[in-house]
């Protein structure tokens, strides 16, 4: 288990589109997703495409993952029916202080949303989302996100992360996010077997907060979902991590982390 960070430590975050726990081999194996998340060794993980309508040993997907990983789960439904719901989620080792849900649905498109959570242990505001497939739709969703985040809390670091469905490395529908928040060099995370597109992204405010970002490309991650997870680290005090991609991976198994510029 990752220790809860405090003063003088670093915070590890991840975003992972788990594709309903169906792998690139089309097998439904939530256990593989849990193993990948465990290997990420993060304090908070944002998940997309969590399907609570599918069960694991009689439990909904998110409940299974939270129990297996000993983390607190926060659900953010985008689609709901009599069988359950489908959408975003958070898994956290930090205490969850407050939860807000932002409706990002655009008429004529699939329902979308974001989880907006205040986490304690460190003063962190975590916004996890999965934007739409259409460029005009994404621009409206980014505008709504920015409206919901204005003004940012002066005493909290704000992190926005998730699957943004933007195929271009810079600009496009994410231009306003790039202008107002600190981002990293986009890293290719999709499709997992041969990543070509930087769909999974992360931004941070204030602009002075620096972080490192990597793609986790272990063999199991290439198999467990059609997206690779992205993992970030940031310093929690004045000993800031230099913002760059390609820093040495943590832990002895350096083959598990593949950096893609």
Descriptive report:
The protein has 261 residues and is an alpha+beta fold. The chain has a single domain, classed as 4-Layer Sandwich (Deoxyribonuclease I, Chain A). Helix content is 18%, strand content 35%. The chain has 5 helices and 16 strands. The strands form 3 sheets. Strands 1, 2, 5, 6, 13, 14, 15 and 16 form an 8-stranded mixed beta sheet that branches. It has a 6-stranded mixed beta sheet with strand order 7-8-9-10-12-11. It is globular, with a radius of gyration of 17 Å.
Entry keywords:
disordered N terminus, 6-stranded mixed β-sheet, 5 helices, 8-stranded mixed β-sheet, 261 residues, Deoxyribonuclease I, Chain A, single chain
Q: In summary, what is this structure?
A:
The chain is of the alpha+beta class and 261 residues long. It is 18% helix and 35% strand.
CATH top level assignment: Alpha Beta
Total domain modules: 1
Report the helical percentage: 10-25%
In the CATH classification, which architecture applies?
4-Layer Sandwich
Radius of gyration: 17 Å
Dominant shape: globular
Write the SSE topology.
Blueprint: E1 10-17, H1 30-40, E2 44-51, E3 55-56, E4 59-60, H2 61-69, E5 72-81, E6 84-92, E7 96-103, E8 113-119, E9 124-130, H3 135-148, E10 157-163, H4 175-180, E11 182-183, E12 200-205, E13 211-216, H5 219-224, E14 230-235, E15 244-245, E16 257-258
């Amino acid at each position: 288990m990752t220790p809860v960070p405090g003063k003088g430590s670093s915070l590890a975050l991840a975003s992972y589109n788990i594709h309903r726990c169906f792998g690139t081999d089309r097998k439904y194996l939530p256990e593989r997703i849990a193993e990948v998340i465990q290997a990420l060794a993060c304090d908070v993980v944002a998940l997309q495409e969590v399907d609570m309508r599918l069960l694991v040993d009689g439990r909904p997907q998110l409940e299974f993952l939270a129990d297996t990983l000993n983390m607190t789960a926060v659900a953010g439904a985008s689609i709901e029916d009599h069988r359950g719901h489908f959408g975003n989620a958070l898994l956290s080792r930090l205490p969850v202080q407050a939860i807000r849900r932002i409706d990002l649905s655009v008429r004529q498109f699939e329902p979308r949303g974001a989880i907006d959570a205040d986490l304690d242990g460190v003063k962190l505001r975590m916004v996890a989302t999965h934007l739409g497939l259409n460029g005009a739709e994404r621009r409206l969703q980014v505008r709504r996100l920015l409206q919901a985040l204005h003004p940012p809390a002066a005493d909290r670091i704000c992190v926005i992360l998730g699957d943004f469905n933007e195929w271009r490395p810079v600009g496009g529908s994410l231009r306003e996010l790039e202008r107002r928040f600190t981002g990293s060099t986009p890293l290719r995370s999709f499709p997992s077997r041969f990543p070509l597109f930087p769909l999974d992204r992360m931004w941070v405010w204030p602009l002075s907060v620096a972080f490192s970002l990597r793609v986790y490309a272990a063999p199991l991650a290439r198999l467990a979902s059609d997206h690779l997870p992205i993992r970030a680290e940031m310093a929690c005090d004045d000993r800031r991590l230099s913002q760059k991609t390609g820093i040495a991976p943590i832990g002895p198994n350096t083959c598990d982390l593949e950096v893609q510029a």
